[in-house]
Design a protein that fits this description.
- The longest helix has 18 residues, at 5-22.
- The chain has three domains: 2-26 and 111-207, D-amino Acid Aminotransferase, Chain A, domain 1; 34-107, 2-Layer Sandwich (Dna Ligase, domain 1); 222-302, Succinyl-CoA synthetase domains (Rossmann fold, 3-Layer(aba) Sandwich).
- It is of the alpha+beta class.
- Helices cover 32% and strands 27% of the residues.
- Helix 1 packs across helix 5 and helix 7 (222-231) runs antiparallel to helix 9.
């Protein structure tokens, strides 16, 4: 699941520097500090800092730029004005209509670069892209062995990123990096992180209090949040997403594979517009969790008199 932009920066700032030091990284690292705001609050930045502002929703930068919802190199006064003119306004982004409720405001380094570093998990390896692409075998664990896979000025950063993502069960990370040679500084910005939600019971404490935004244009339903909370308390899987609350086909399925088969079949028979939810429970969750899951699904299903 993708965490919010603010939490992505927070997690990276709290944990990545220590992994850089373990990778024998001799330079210091600059990771922007950020805040998440609704647009009313005063911003805790000094007048001479450069700032980037954007909605803290799951939206691509290109979509935000096209909609005029991503702005860089603002000072604190202009950032506050920008926020106040856009808060709680209904906007269209990438063909989806919704209301911007949260923004992330973060520091911007004057020499932030445009080199993209990406880490993603695959079935039999981890893929690290930074100019070129390197497939990292899952059994490569020693720092010296990892260094043998990378070269160039960002080799240490790539090694540290692999170690960092493994430790926090991050499945996908994208950021922009650059080197400021005059200051011996690594600058990191524009961070997006996806975590393996099934590992919350292992490293949820390291993630901290994370926000997992719903896709833009969809309401944040308390019933979905309740199931997510249950899911995080067990090594089993409990998933529930409302697709169309007015739909007439609801599913209550045991088994992740079965849920996909049933959903595909419903769509193949031409009833996609009537499909109300996607969900499943699997991995032998406790009986009381299955009861709460079923009660929640049935409660949403019967909440409308129609």
């Amino acid at each position: 699941r993708e965490v919010s932009g603010h939490d992505s920066l927070r997690i990276l700032g709290e944990h990545f520097p220590s992994w850089l030091s373990r990778a024998d990284f001799s330079s210091s690292v600059w990771i922007p500090k950020s805040v998440t705001v609704t647009g009313e609050e005063p911003l805790p930045f000094s007048a001479d800092e450069l700032l980037t502002v954007r909605p803290d929703h799951l939206l691509a930068d290109d979509e935000l730029k096209d909609a005029g919802l991503l702005e860089k190199a603002l000072n604190v006064t202009s950032a506050q004005t920008w926020l106040q003119t856009r808060r709680n306004k209904e906007v269209s982004v990438g063909g989806r209509v919704g209301v911007i409720t949260n923004f992330v405001v973060c520091q911007q380094h004057p020499e932030a670069g445009d080199v993209t570093l990406r880490f993603e998990t695959a079935r039999e390896s981890e893929v690290v892209s930074c100019g070129g692409t390197v497939n990292v075998p899952l059994d490569t664990v020693e720092v010296t062995d990892l260094f043998a896979l990378f070269d160039g000025e960002f080799a240490a950063a790539q090694v540290a990123m692999v170690l960092f993502c493994r430790d926090l069960h991050i499945t996908d990370l994208t950021c922009q990096i650059s080197r400021v040679s005059t200051e011996s500084l690594l600058v990191v910005s524009d961070v997006r992180i996806h975590v393996d939600w099934a590992a919350a019971y292992l490293c949820g404490d390291k993630w901290g209090e994370c926000k997992f935004p719903v896709p833009f244009g969809r309401p944040d339903l308390p019933e979905e949040a309740a199931i997510h909370e249950l899911d995080g308390r067990t090594g089993a899987s409990l998933k529930f997403t409302v697709l169309n609350r007015a739909g007439r086909i609801w599913t209550l399925i045991a088994g992740g594979g079965a849920s996909v088969v049933y959903t595909d079949t419903i769509c193949d028979y031409g009833f996609a517009k009537e499909l109300a939810n996607y969900g499943e429970y699997s991995g032998d969750p406790p009986e009381e969790f299955v009861y709460e899951y079923s009660k929640t699904v049935l409660g949403v299903m019967t909440s409308s008199p129609d």
